[in-house]
User: Which sequence fits this backbone?
């Protein structure tokens, strides 16, 4: 009896051990298959990115690659979901290897002009009192006498104080001429379709007040020298799904935005200014960003408005400057810009002008520039892209609910 009991126990133990070993082998094979499938899916993403780098419209002609065999038996398939005004191009790649199947979702876009704290279309000189957080890029030479907490990318050479994250020189230039084409091909038709296109006012321009998800547009008939505007109401409307507004006249803007929105001003070649006449900020903590795009200049009138002006937006002056219109005898305390500044011509200034005794007589006493990291993932609607740049993968995640 003892021998039989011992034999039975040993048999059960051996069977259990063999079962455990078999299970472990099977589990290992599944894990290996899943890991290999993830690599195969990643290869599919990279193969599709290669095609996009050569032709960004590739997703339109080949939205589904079908199954592509690699290494004899492993395979991947990539599907592309086209971008919208507020969402980037999304790629889904399914990889199959052995018993493993994995799907990756990646959002992809070209770089936009909102990827930089400063982007100048010409030479750029940064004064000693400047304190900048974010990347700085210029199509020409860059001279820095201030503090830059970020990387510097120069189309020409760099001189002055080194930034925190290094310098690259003699880099490709960002095309500012392509922005005008983008305005006419993308932004203007988008506004026309949304009913947010405004022709020349026949007066002094438009006053635009943003309040959460709504926008009030008035025609200005007087008061631009004092800030006490005489106006005639033109429209009140919600921010459309496309987020785009287009004006063929000067715009004076302020407010708090609750949805993604881009305001464009272009009266013609090198014509069209935006005046920032008050705070321009998000109405709540969210992913909503905003862009102000002027064909010519973005101007802060220093002779009226708040002592401490705060702006959170991507600002662009395609052919001109971003600056304070400084008048003798008017001083203000602080201008704080969180966002991005792009300008065709450098030399614009928010700084304080002093007299012979070093006493301030006009301008802003303090300036603060900080890049808004939200722009890195959520650029404003239809914000101009840098078409001559490499692609940028914003997100890369394992997808638990694929579109197949």
Assistant:
């Amino acid at each position: 009896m003892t021998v039989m009991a011992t034999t039975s126990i040993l048999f059960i133990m051996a069977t259990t051990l063999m079962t455990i070993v078999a299970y472990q082998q099977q589990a290992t094979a599944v894990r290996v298959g899943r890991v290999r499938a993830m690599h195969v899916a990643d290869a599919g993403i990279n193969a599709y990115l290669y095609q996009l780098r050569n032709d960004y419209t590739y997703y339109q002609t080949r939205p589904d690659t079908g199954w592509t065999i690699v290494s004899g038996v492993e395979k991947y398939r990539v599907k592309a979901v086209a971008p919208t005004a507020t969402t980037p191009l999304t790629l889904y790649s399914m990889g199959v290897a052995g018993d493993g199947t994995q799907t990756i979702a990646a959002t992809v876009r070209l770089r936009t002009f909102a990827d930089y704290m400063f982007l100048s279309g010409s030479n750029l000189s940064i004064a000693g009192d400047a304190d900048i957080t974010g990347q700085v890029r210029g199509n020409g030479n860059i001279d820095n006498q201030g503090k830059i907490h970020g990387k510097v990318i120069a189309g020409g050479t760099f001189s002055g104080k080194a930034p925190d994250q290094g310098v690259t020189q003699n880099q490709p230039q960002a095309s500012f001429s392509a922005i005008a084409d983008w305005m006419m091909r993308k932004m203007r038709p988008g506004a026309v379709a949304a009913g947010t296109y405004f022709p020349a006012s026949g007066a002094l321009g438009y006053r635009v007040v943003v309040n959460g998800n709504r926008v009030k547009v008035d025609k200005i008939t007087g008061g631009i020298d004092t800030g006490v505007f005489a106006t005639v109401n033109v429209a009140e409307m919600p921010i459309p799904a496309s987020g785009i507004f287009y004006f063929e006249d000067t715009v004076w803007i302020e407010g708090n935005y609750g949805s993604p929105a881009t305001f464009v001003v272009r009266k013609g070649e090198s014509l069209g200014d935006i005046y920032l006449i008050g705070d321009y900020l998000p109405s709540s903590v969210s992913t909503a960003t905003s862009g102000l795009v002027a064909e010519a200049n973005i101007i802060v009138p220093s002779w009226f408005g708040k002592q401490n002006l705060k702006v959170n937006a991507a600002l662009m002056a395609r052919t001109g400057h971003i600056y304070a219109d400084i008048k003798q005898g008017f001083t203000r305390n602080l201008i704080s810009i969180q966002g991005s500044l792009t300008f065709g011509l450098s030399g614009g200034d928010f700084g304080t002008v002093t007299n012979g005794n070093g006493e301030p007589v006009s301008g802003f006493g303090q300036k603060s520039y900080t890049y808004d990291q939200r722009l890195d993932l959520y650029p404003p609607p239809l914000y101009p892209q840098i078409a001559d740049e490499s692609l940028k993968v914003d997100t890369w995640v394992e997808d638990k609910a694929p579109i197949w």
